[in-house]
Structure formats: C-alpha cells, structure tokens
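Justification of computing resources. Each target in the renewal requires a structure prediction run like the one illustrated here; the chain below, 231 residues long, is used simply to show the kind of job we budget for.
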Amino acid sequence: MFDRLKKAFSPGTSPSVEPVVTNAVSEWAASQGFSYAGPSDKNGTTDGFTLTGKINGKTWKLETGPASRDYIHRHELRARADLKLNDDVSALIINRPLKEALESRAYEIYTDTLQTTADPSLPEEMRWLAMYPEAMWNGLTPEFWSRFAVLAEKREHALAWVDSRLAGLLMGWPGPGLNEQIPFILMILRGKAYLRMQYTPADLPSLAHAAKIFTHACETGASGLAADILV
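Resulting structure tokens:
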C-alpha cells in the first residue's frame, strides 16, 4: 500500500522544468546573500549543491541530493538551522497525503502479527505522528488545513510558530511548484529547525521559494518561541 502511495508522489506527470545552469543558481544565491557550493555534471547542471546563510546570527544550511527517505522519489531538498531553542519545543508541519501514507504504513506494521520488533530503517517521522497530537485553530484558512497538518507536543508552540505569513508561503508555491501530493515536512525539533521535501533538480523557482519558507520559519521560530530560547 505504501508503495502505491509512493508512486503517487512521483514527479513523472509534473510539467517538465528546463535545466538551470550552475551560474543561474550561484548568481541567485549571491543576490540573496547566500553562499553557494556544489559540483556540476558534464552538461553544467547543478547536482548536490549546498547553500548557507545566517538568520539573526545563526547559520543555516540548505542542500539538495539523492533522497534519504524512502517516501521521497529520487531527489530531495533538506535544510537545517540550530535556533538554540529548548529541547521541549517541538512542532511539525506535514502535507496531509504524506501524513496519511505514513500513518497507513504504521498501522500495517502494527497489525502485522509476523513483525514483532520495530524496523530500525523506518523513518522517525512515523514516531512523531504517534507522539504529537494535531493542532488546529481559527485564523488560518480551511484550504491550509485541508492541505497541511500541524502537530506539536504543546499547542501553544504551534500557535507561536505558524503565523499567517508562513501559512501563506506554504500555500503559494510558484509555477508547477509543490502540489498537494509532493512529500513535504517542516519542523522544529531538539532546538533546531528542519525542512525536507521532494525536489525536482534545476527547479530554481521552487528552490527560491523553499529557501524563503525555511528562513521565515526560522525567524518566527526564534521570535515566536523566544520564551523557550536557551540563554
């Protein structure tokens, strides 16, 4: 069942994206004040590049490369920033099709009488779904709640982190961008902010928008959860 859902996340039916040469990505990164590093293949297209920057003096890193999760098809974009938050601050934004796929997978494992121990290869995202309840509140559109789920150990952490601008950015991907089926996770966990999503190589508009989402999520995480920041 999970394999069938995974196929639904494949970008095979998405509109094609023209290759972006290394200079286009590095020039865009420079225009944003980001540092760029990465190899290029014989055709000059970027593959596995890394971007770094700073938010309120804290370094963040965004990189692309082969998928490290089996629910992501081929390539992924991932980002990380240490916000120096207390360890008890936990919040997670996940697109609903991925949430439902992981929950279905967890249920199948739980009901499989032949499987008596947990598979160590399973993504820890499945544990988060079991640990954190879903939070919903007025102020964000019904369209947002139909597309994304927000989970948090403490509801007030989700309220302080997910503002209307972050919700708007999540709903406003450019061009073909990120449709409802593409795996996407944005989280604050163990004092750090993380992003993980399926990514089509050379899709500069989606890369730029993902960077905007992540940096804003870091800003709202640091400011909205200021009471939980370690001094």
